[in-house]
């Protein structure tokens, strides 16, 4: 932790703060009401004819009140030119020795001297004045009244070098947002994307719900959970690893179309596409199946891309070469079974191969301990991961997975696939990465218990990602869940794709990081 109290800059600004108070000026007023945003002023007047500084001085141009952070300051005789930043937008402001007044300032000190001596870059100011354009055509506000809204005690990053250390940018995101307008734009786009998702679901009559984050047990995904303790109950609880179990209980209760956007927690590694705390969207629709969900998902991505970018083709760095690659999100996406995708991209069929032959294919690519005990379905899934995923650049729905990959999915309706223990599941892949997981949901209580008992046996044998037996969930399924389709979409990965971010940390405001004290 940095001890900034000893820094000269902190001491200088603290001294100025006391001097401002002695002048009778409140450096932290409770209220200031801008009449417009800087972005709106720029949008309306950047191309308009609005008059020069003389017209602004006499009040002949339009007047505005704005608030923002001082990010540039230079004196030029009787005028001071500055830039005020609000969000990712900046506008030039001109302070004038004769016409600019400081709110609350009395006595002999002039306004411009006050600004030069007491105000620092990073301070937050309210400015009221008239707009004009300089001889070079720069949109500017002729400041008539200035209100100090917040005296800052620490400086901003240096203007040109800014914050270059990624770790510092993630840890001190507030400085990252101030210093890098493109970062602000990414998070504004994230908010817009989530609003579009909610609108899309509303159009299909889904109800947004909230389910518990702290749970007595965990399930719905293969993941190691985080453990917590609730003092009031003197009980151990888990942070949820998915949203699935609670939402399915609501299906049993008669809520036929439900979805949730919420945080889930998986005690796993951290890399460019994984953060132990992330935002998940899960949705369930009674009387749909996985084919309905395929159409629903691809149309969701298509519509969001159109609203965000005005087109369905986006350009994203290729995961291998780094070159910008066109990705078309227009529906329909390519549909191919897991086995067929292996034959197409790996060049061999898994059906004629024995388990031992599949293990030989995977030797050196997968942990030998995993291979030793893996059932055939897992071997097929691992073959897909190792030989196929890297080829899935444009959108693909990979369908019909082995039952061993999930305990919550319905067996395939076709007799041949059912006899091979294939389930009605698809995963959507873009740029070699999973973007969606979906099932025809299992509602057979007898098979559900059997599969969860298998999971629990694995957990008791040391598999930290296997699920425990959830009797509460099994009771709900026994009371009848309608046939349904379900999806899970990682919001962070979706935002990465649609904004061009190459790391999940670039779309999470405060990604998980080791303490500076460690």
Concise structural overview:
By secondary structure, the protein is α+β, with helices and mostly antiparallel strands.
Structure description:
The chain has 518 residues and is α+β, with helices and mostly antiparallel strands. The chain contains 17 helices and 19 strands. Helix content is 33%, strand content 25%. An eight-stranded mixed sheet has the order 7-11-12-19-18-17-16-15, sandwiched between helices. The model has no long low-confidence stretch (mean pLDDT 94).
Query: What is the fold named in CATH at topology level of the largest domain?
Result: BirA Bifunctional Protein, domain 2
CATH top-level class of the largest domain: Alpha Beta
From the helix content, strand content and strand pairing, which structural class follows?
Answer: alpha+beta
Unreliable runs, pLDDT <50, ≥5 residues?
Answer: none
End-to-end Cα distance, whole Å, is 10 Å
Average of the residue pLDDT scores: 94
Determine the CATH superfamily of the largest domain: Bira Bifunctional Protein, Domain 2
Domains, number: 2
The dominant shape is: elongated
The CATH architecture of the largest domain: 2-Layer Sandwich
- Rg over CA atoms, rounded to whole Å, is 29 Å
* Oligomeric state of this protein: single chain
Beta-strand proportion: 25-35%
């Amino acid at each position: 932790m940095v001890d900034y109290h000893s820094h000269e800059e902190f001491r200088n600004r603290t001294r100025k703060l006391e001097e401002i108070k002695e002048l009778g000026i409140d450096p932290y007023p409770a209220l200031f009401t801008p009449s417009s945003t800087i972005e709106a002023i720029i949008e309306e007047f950047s191309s308009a004819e609005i008059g020069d500084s003389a017209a602004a001085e006499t009040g002949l141009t339009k007047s505005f009140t704005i608030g923002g952070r001082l990010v540039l300051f230079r004196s030029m005789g009787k005028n001071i030119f500055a830039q005020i930043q609000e969000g990712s937008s900046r506008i030039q402001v001109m302070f004038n020795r004769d016409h600019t007044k400081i709110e609350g300032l009395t006595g002999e000190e002039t306004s411009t001297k006050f600004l030069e001596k007491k105000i620092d870059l990073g301070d937050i100011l309210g400015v009221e004045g008239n707009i004009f354009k300089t001889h070079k055509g720069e949109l500017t506000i002729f400041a008539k009244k200035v209100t100090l809204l917040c005296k800052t005690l620490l400086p901003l990053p240096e203007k040109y070098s800014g914050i270059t250390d990624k770790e510092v940018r993630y840890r001190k995101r507030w400085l990252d947002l101030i210093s890098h307008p493109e970062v602000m734009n990414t998070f504004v786009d994230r908010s817009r994307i989530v609003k579009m998702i909610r609108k899309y679901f509303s159009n299909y009559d889904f109800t947004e719900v909230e389910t518990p984050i702290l749970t007595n047990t965990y399930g719905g995904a293969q993941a190691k959970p985080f453990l917590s303790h609730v003092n009031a109950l003197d009980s151990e609880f888990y942070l949820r690893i998915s949203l699935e179990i609670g939402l399915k209980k609501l299906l049993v209760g008669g809520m036929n179309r439900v979805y949730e956007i919420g945080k889930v927690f998986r005690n796993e590694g951290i890399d460019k596409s994984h953060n132990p705390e992330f935002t998940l969207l899960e949705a369930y629709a009674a009387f749909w199946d996985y084919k309905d969900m395929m159409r629903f998902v691809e149309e969701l991505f298509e519509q969001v891309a159109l609203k965000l970018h005005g087109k369905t083709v986006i350009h994203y760095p290729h995961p291998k070469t780094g070159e910008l690659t066109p990705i078309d999100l227009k529906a329909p996406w390519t549909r191919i079974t897991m086995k067929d995708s292996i034959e197409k991209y790996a060049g061999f069929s898994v059906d004629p191969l024995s388990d031992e032959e599949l293990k030989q294919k995977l030797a050196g690519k997968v942990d030998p301990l995993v291979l030793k005990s893996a059932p055939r379905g897992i071997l097929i899934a691992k073959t897909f991961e190792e030989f196929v995923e890297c080829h899935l650049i444009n959108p693909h729905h990979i369908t019909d997975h082995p039952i061993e990959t999930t305990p919550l999915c319905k067996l395939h309706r076709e007799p041949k696939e059912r006899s091979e223990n294939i389930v009605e599941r698809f995963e959507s892949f873009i740029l070699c990465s999973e973007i969606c997981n979906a099932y025809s949901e299992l509602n057979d209580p007898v098979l559900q218990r059997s599969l969860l008992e298998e999971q629990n046996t694995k957990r008791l044998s040391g598999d930290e990602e296997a699920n425990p037996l959830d009797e509460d969930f099994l009771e709900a399924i026994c009371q009848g869940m309608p046939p349904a389709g379900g999806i899970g979409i990682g919001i962070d990965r979706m935002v990465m794709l649609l904004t061009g971010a190459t790391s999940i940390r670039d779309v999470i405001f405060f990604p998980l990081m080791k303490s500076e004290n460690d």
